[in-house]
């Protein structure tokens, strides 16, 4: 019975996160659209522009290999390939910049929506944005934290890439174990980074390294089980829509309408997963802080002297 109650308590914050949008639908519906629409635009750009251009370039490269360099056909193919390559670079750069900007915006807005709703406020999207933008200090901390987190995530990926190169040069059991351990560590750290941004949104006094230290303390000491559950659930849910994306890619080659319909369904699922992730990170933070404060109160209670003299 105790084990069952412990398991239930470990999952209770996920239930709270799942139900959080129902507390204020007028806010979370536009927030969901803010999260989902950029995903759809990126997927459409990738499927209907970037991938066809990449395939055309590969096709031209194969034709160039079998073409006489001194022939007019060779010059025509080279010119066409360079034109397609320039278009691909421009589209890829524009999509990357847009993705980064929208990633910052949607994460901040979604986390502020989760924080204010969990705290009992019932804002509309306009009221929420006004509350955040009218008080510049509210958004400054999360932006600083997100910039730091992005740099740390890049460093983790870089270290993982170096280890992959080492694995390719020296295929040994020790390197494999190190690779698996580092991969799991990076996956867990990414969730810690997500909670770090949630900390900076909920607590304006915590930003950057301070928010990271707070998130690490909560994930590794205050609520370890819930932290592990959060990491596992997020990655399982995050990978669930991926097969649908692969199916959409195949259908897009045969029918644009069918591919677009499947991409839309994939976008809705991915948007829902991201909203749940933001809500879960925020609910985890608030409940972990409640646990931390309760632990501190218990410790102070133990330290209070009874006032009884020993005989």
Which terms would index this structure?
single chain, globular, mainly alpha, 311 residues, disordered N terminus
Question: Concise description?
Answer:
With about 300 residues, the protein is an all-alpha fold. The chain has helices at about 1-20, 25-65, 70-120, 125-135, 135-170, 175-200, 210-220, 225-240, 240-255, 255-305.
Give a description of the structure.
This protein is mainly α and 311 residues long. 87% of the residues lie in helices and 0% in strands. It is built from 10 helices and no strands. Helix 3 crosses helix 6 and helix 7 (209-222) crosses helix 10.
Helix content: over 70%
N-to-C series of helices and strands: HHHHHHHHHH
Portion in strands: under 5%
Going by helix content, strand content and strand pairing, the class is mainly alpha
Low-pLDDT regions: 1-8, 306-311
Average pLDDT: 83
- Largest sheet data: none
Shape: globular
Q: Determine Rg (CA atoms, Å).
A: 25 Å
Number of helical regions: 10
